[in-house]
């Protein structure tokens, strides 16, 4: 098993003095400040504690939380989800992805993963005994449509895969699928009796396009398995409460796998997740976070220019990451810094850490197609972000 790169880089950065850490997606904006006192007063009481620690949770999670999740989809997207049969509460989005793979595919089955994509997908697929099948996705305004046009195998049958994992909004690129792209994927899935696993954990962070849950697209429908969590949208990665939405028969299988592996989620944390999902002021809070992330994206793209060695063939449309191409910076680094045995992105990431005191992630961990890129996060504290951009924008060495 390969190392979890962004965690390793972040851990190294924390040991170094005066480093601006833009390597790991731990939002500084959560939990919602206006809810903290309510959580402390009402959800972390003696009675709540004793209730939580003296029993196992239901396999699917609490009925109240599942209803709140169903209400989430109806309120935001006009989508009807049955809280009793089509939702399971999980240990974050990561468990939901594992359950989706265990429930929808068999040992050895191919699972399609695009290049680039979140580093965890390929490793999860392989760890669970499935076979990752990677498809290089071009940088374009409609990336999946371009891929279908250029790659006959993918356009025909996902390369024979039983499922395809799609992250929209996406880590690391910030790409968001259009309705036409979802319809295209749905048509391919229907022809090949395949599943579409939609990781939508950045759903509230949409800048340039509206977020579309795959299940809400008619051509996808009940072939969608939707993955979501509280970690990113509420800024609570340590809460470890997520969920999966899928049709009834798959949820029944997922509940069994969940029992075999986990038994149940943390009941005390479910109470906190319920309060956040039901908060009447939460949409206003999301809007403020979204505006801040959009502003930071614009600041970074304006400051990190081709003159400084950055190019933006993949300017994000949502999410909380940036993925600039740093080929031009690599060319202008001192010969002693350039390493023929390392990718462009890995070389530049080391240079930025050692010489600029900014920690970023080499693009290669998200796929070979972006090994000339580095990934930056937008969700840290304001002071760190501003200082990091200032350091990243410094002039390159002459010659």
From TrEMBL:
Cofactor(s) the record lists: pyridoxal 5'-phosphate
Keyword Transferase: yes
Aminotransferase class I/classII large domain: residues covered: 18-392
Pfam families: Aminotran_1_2
Gene Ontology MF terms in the entry: transaminase activity
InterPro entries on file: Aminotransferase_I/II_large, AspAT/PAT-like, PyrdxlP-dep_Trfase, PyrdxlP-dep_Trfase_major
Keywords, in A-Z order: Aminotransferase, Pyridoxal phosphate, Transferase
Alphabetized SUPFAM superfamilies for the sequence: PLP-dependent transferases (SSF53383)
UniProt family annotation: Belongs to the class-I pyridoxal-phosphate-dependent aminotransferase family.
Name of this protein: Pyridoxal phosphate-dependent aminotransferase
Organism: Actinoplanes oblitus
């Amino acid at each position: 098993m390969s190392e979890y790169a962004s965690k390793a880089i972040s851990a190294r950065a924390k040991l170094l003095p005066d480093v601006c850490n833009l390597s790991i997606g731990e939002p500084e904006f959560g939990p919602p400040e206006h809810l903290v006192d309510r959580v402390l007063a009402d959800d972390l009481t003696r009675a709540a504690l004793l209730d939580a620690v003296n029993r196992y949770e239901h396999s699917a999670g609490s009925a109240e939380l599942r209803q709140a999740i169903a209400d989430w989809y109806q309120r935001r997207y006009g989508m009807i989800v049955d809280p009793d049969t089509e939702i399971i509460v999980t240990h974050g989005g990561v468990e939901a992805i594992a359950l989706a793979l265990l429930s929808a595919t068999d040992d050895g089955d191919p699972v399609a993963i695009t290049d680039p994509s979140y580093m965890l997908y390929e490793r999860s697929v392989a760890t669970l005994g499935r076979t990752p099948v990677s498809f290089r996705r071009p940088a374009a305004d409609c990336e999946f449509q371009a891929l279908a046009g250029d790659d006959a195998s993918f356009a025909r049958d996902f390369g024979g895969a039983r499922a395809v994992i799609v992250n929209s909004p996406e880590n690391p690129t910030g790409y968001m699928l259009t309705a036409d792209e979802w319809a295209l994927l749905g048509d391919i899935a229907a022809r090949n009796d395949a599943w579409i696993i939609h990781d939508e954990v950045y759903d509230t962070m949409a800048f340039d396009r509206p977020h579309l849950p795959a299940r809400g697209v008619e051509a996808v429908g009940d072939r969608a398995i939707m993955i979501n969590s509280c970690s990113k949208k509420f800024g609570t990665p340590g809460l470890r409460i997520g969920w999966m939405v899928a049709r009834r028969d798959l949820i029944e299988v997922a509940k069994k796998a969940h029992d075999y592996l986990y038994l149940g989620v943390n009941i005390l944390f479910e109470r906190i997740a319920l309060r956040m999902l039901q908060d009447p002021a939460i949409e206003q809070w999301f809007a403020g976070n979204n505006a801040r992330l959009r502003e930071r994206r614009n600041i970074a793209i304006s400051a990190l220019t081709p003159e400084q060695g950055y190019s933006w063939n993949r300017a994000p449309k949502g999410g909380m990451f940036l993925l600039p191409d740093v080929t031009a910076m690599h060319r202008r680094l001192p010969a002693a810094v350039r390493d023929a045995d390392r990718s462009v992105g890995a070389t530049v990431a080391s240079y930025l850490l050692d010489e600029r005191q900014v920690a970023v992630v080499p693009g290669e961990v998200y796929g070979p197609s972006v090994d000339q890129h580095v990934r930056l996060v937008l969700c840290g504290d304001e002071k760190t972000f501003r200082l990091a951009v200032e350091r990243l924008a410094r002039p390159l060495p002459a010659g």
